[in-house]
Amino acid sequence: MKLQNITKKEEGVYNVSSLPCPDCKGVLTLEIGGYNLFRYNQGALISEVLGEFSADQRERFVSGYCGDCWKKIFG
Fold first, then answer.
1. Residue closest to 47 by CA, chosen among 38, 33, 35, 57
2. For 4-13, what is each residue's pLDDT tens digit?
């Protein structure tokens, strides 16, 4: 997966969104710093760039599934 809809909120702060969850179609938007966005654009893994966020939030950008749908589908 990848970061979508990258918008500058203020100097050094960006909003990034996930793709819609394949099951519920919800979208997650997070605020990240410019350094992490730079690292992502240089090839860093989503799990590294979003390290400060919860496992459910990181998984959203890796597999596309939100936490609730992941649990419903995969147990």
1. 57
2. 889 999 999 9
pLDDT digits (tens, 9 = 90+) for 53-64: 999 999 999 888
What's the confidence (pLDDT) of residue 2? 77
Give dist(CA 75, CA 46) in Å, integer.
23
Contacts of 59 (CB under 8 A, 6+ apart): 65, 67, 70
Q: Could you tell me the residue range of the domain that residue 12 belongs to?
A: 4-74
- Core vs surface per residue 1-36: b (16+ CB within 10 A) or e: eebeeeeeeeeeebebbbbebeeeeeebebebeeeb
pTM for this model (two decimals): 0.84
Give the chain's domain count: 1
